[in-house]
Amino acid sequence: MQELAISNLHVSVETDEGTREILRGINLTIHAGEIHALMGPNGNGKSTLSETIMGNPHYQVTQGDIRMDGQSILDWTVDQRARAGLFLAMQYPPAIAGITNAAFIRAAVNARRAKDDQMPVTRFLRELDERLTQLKMKPDMADRYLNAGFSGGEKKKNEILQLLMVQPHLAILDEIDSGLDVDAMRIVAEAVNSMRGPQFSTLIITHYQRLLDYIVPDFVHVLKDGCIIESGGAALAKQLEQSGYEDISEAAE
């Protein structure tokens, strides 16, 4: 993937009170090799954008488009998008009893490979052990049921373990710093930074500038009331840490 282009994206959801529009004209282009950070107050559409990019059917695109290398993906299933190289580290990863972590990750790795190019078990286990060591995760994490009984920090590390193993083209990291202590945040950041290169891009959704001290973004965007109201470089995140979103909102009006 060389480019993900979001143009004039409007997204609504059905609620008990009726249809609610959450995204109101998002324009965002992410080129291969770029690190983008998306910031903004709670409840303004950041996670909605991530879920929409991945194709969650709960979110209805009413206007606009999402394109990968010029091709619309709006009618693609979640599975098709993942096979094409999109990856979402979810804000609240679900627990799935009965499926081991290793089995889930191996299935995800092989789903992106041709049938005649499946990763051999010995190679998979070797790489999994290397990644567990890199993230300072206990070896028995591979044999535990997916996210079952995991702490918040373990779930977040496990999302990054999947990222390292699957090797997607574009990773959306939704509040990957949530529940991490300082040491764990540094480990996770180092793992994400190890992926940086011309064939990988990232959209990091976060509330806190501290994560961006470790993963320095090329671009920072502020999303409020369903719109991107400001974009800039890494310095914008430091500005938000000092002044909050109010000054940005007033300047955008």
From TrEMBL:
Belongs to the ABC transporter superfamily. Ycf16 family. InterPro entries: ABC_transporter-like_ATP-bd, ABC_transporter-like_CS, FeS-cluster_ATPase_SufC, P-loop_NTPase. This is Fe-S cluster assembly ATPase SufC. PANTHER family: ABC TRANSPORTER I FAMILY MEMBER 6, CHLOROPLASTIC (PTHR43204). It comes from the Bacteria. Residues 4-250 form the ABC transporter domain. Keywords: ATP-binding, Nucleotide-binding. CDD domains: ABC_FeS_Assembly. Pfam families: ABC_tran.
